[in-house]
Amino acid sequence: MKIHEYQAKAILAKYGVPVPRGRMALSVDEAKAIAVELGGRVVVKAQIHAGGRGKGGGVKLADNADAAAEAASKILGMTLITHQTGPEGRLVKCLLVEETLPIEKELYLGIVLDRAQGKLVMMASAAGGMDIEEVAAKTPELILKEAFDPGAGLMGWQARKLAFGIGIPAASVGAAVKTMQALAKAYLDTDGSLAEINPLVLTSDGRVVALDAKVTFDDNAMFRHKDLAELRDLNEEDPLEVEASKFGLNYIKLDGSVGCMVNGAGLAMATMDIIKYAGGSPANFLDVGGGANKEQIKNAFRILMDDKSVKAVLINIFGGILRCDTLAAGVVDASRELGMNLPLVIRMEGTNVQEGRLILKESGLNFTVADGMKDAAEKVVALAQ
Fold first, then answer.
1. Does the annotation list 106 as a binding residue?
2. SS3 sequence of 209-242
3. 41 annotated as ligand-binding
4. Which of 4, 183, 225, 289 keeps 20 to 30 A from 215, CA to CA?
């Protein structure tokens, strides 16, 4: 689950991460009032779930309150397009108005789970303010890493090693260590999946401050964090993904034309791969899960039908807990109830597969039954084209 920058900063501040003074604004008048409170020069920042906002015109400096109001009027309501939003962009509905700082140096801090090591890793770099993916690709030696145990947290010696490694002056190392350890504790306590400060700035008066912040959480842990779950902004998410989450469906929108309905994440990945191999492109990742029932199958169908880019649908099911006859009955009922008018290719194997195929055959509906994954992919790609 993603949250906005202003929300991430509020959480990190509770753990002792220094952040600039500022508040969220929903209108031009609010933005101006906050600028008056802060006094002096401020920065007005669009709040959307995407990076690259400055390059897209979503971050503006203002020398006074009137200039802040003018900047807010330009940013609020704009469709902000960045390298992370895609060409459709995101509508800006709220702002963060903050004080500016006397920046001496821009640095980077981030925490992720390194699946290769099976450990949490604190990353630090002297190349702050840049896209960390670009730094990793072109100059990976500039990214320092320290793996740490979640039970012990980030140790002081590890934080000091990183601080000196990215060139923080001795007088500011203590503040940097506290910031790194606070970031690590916030990540652990909130069941984070990513915590990133880019840039972490060193000011001319020796302070260490999180000028920007990005935090995402593990969706599966939100039952432990009701307060954090309330921070979810549904306006920033794909409407079909939001709808799918209501029915316990794992759905991710993609850019292709072949709709996929599969049970099991591994099979879903393999299905998308073989669609690409056959010359097509998947329109989504949709895992109905091993224990799906008729109602979930119907809702999955409805979500696929609501995606205007879908030209054909591939159902690829390995019958286990979800038996093939249960799937077939659900597909028939959903097709009749929803008036399914898209070409539909079905590949089934596993428990009660013969019974499932008989249900499809006797339904009188125009399904294409495939013999194996390769055959299914070739048929659905041909139908989508």
1. yes
2. EECCCEEEECHHHHHHCHHHHCCCCHHHCCHHHH
3. no
4. 289
Phi, psi at 209, each rounded to 5° = -135, 140
Given 30, 146, 196, 378, which residue is catalytic? 196
Long-range contacts of range 160-164, CB-CB < 8 Å, 24 or more positions apart? 162/122, 162/124, 163/124
Of 205, 236, 267, which marks where a domain is finished? 236
52 known member of a binding site:
yes
- Tell whether residue 53 is among the known ligand binding residues: yes
CATH number reported for the structural domain that contains residue 96 in this entry: 3.30.1490.20
Residue 48, both tokens: 């959307």
Distance CA 8, CA 378 (A): 45
User: How many Å apart are CA 47 and CA 91, to the nearest integer?
Assistant: 9
Which of 185, 206, 236 terminates a domain? The answer is: 236
Q: Catalytic residue at 277?
A: no
How many angstroms separate the CA atoms of 272 and 260, rounded? Answer: 8
φ and ψ at residue 143, rounded to 5 degrees:
-105, 115
How many domains does the chain fold into? 3
6 carries an active-site annotation = no
**pLDDT tens for residues 312-366?**
999 988 877 778 888 888 888 888 887 878 888 999 888 888 888 888 888 888 8
Neighbouring C-beta atoms of residue 131, cutoff 10 Å: 15
